[in-house]
Amino acid sequence: MKNGTIRQxxxxxxxxxxxxxxxxxxxxxxxxxxxxxxAPRAITRALRKGAILFRKGxxxxxxxxxxxxxxxxxxxxxxxxxxxxxxxxxxxxxxELAALDGGARTADxxxxxxxxLLVIDRRExxxxxxxxxxxxxxFIEILAGRVRRTSEQVEDIFFLDLRGRLAKALxxxxxxxxxxxxxxxxxxxxxx
Length: 192
What we know:
Blueprint: H1 3-12, H2 17-22, H3 32-38, E1 43-47, E2 52-54, E3 62-68, E4 71-76, E5 82-88, E6 93-94, H4 96-101, E7 108-111, E8 115-121, H5 122-131, H6 133-159, H7 162-176, H8 181-189
Antiparallel strand pairs: 1-8, 2-7, 3-6, 3-8, 4-5, 4-7
């Protein structure tokens, strides 16, 4: 699915969370009861550019579906610098660790531009994970993908110089970032 599909659904039906979630690839092929139960409990949240969604160490109580805008996930240092871990674009789900274990956030999440997202609380997710095993497996797939990407990033730090890491990051953003012009400038200005 293209990143623009979520945004198109939001524009057509701004309050129809069922259609928004059903259009999301995460829910594709899953029992429709999952979306029917989650959608009424999802909260829409808007952020202005530069707003902090959460900070490293904050209590994790929910996960997010990014509808529009972009989020930068980073870990701050004591010197005021930050290590950028990921860029979240429309259609992405993030914060899923908190939905599963309720632990502290492992990084900061900052809006890179005006952003809108759905917020789904852990209390709503856990019963559905028990009720729908395929839903639990979908979360496992996301986590496995994140672990693989983290392993690859650690490997890159050890075996690639800065130029090689930057080239690889730019290729990743070209393949997986948004295709529309509203966030293309973010990809062009990304710093690693």
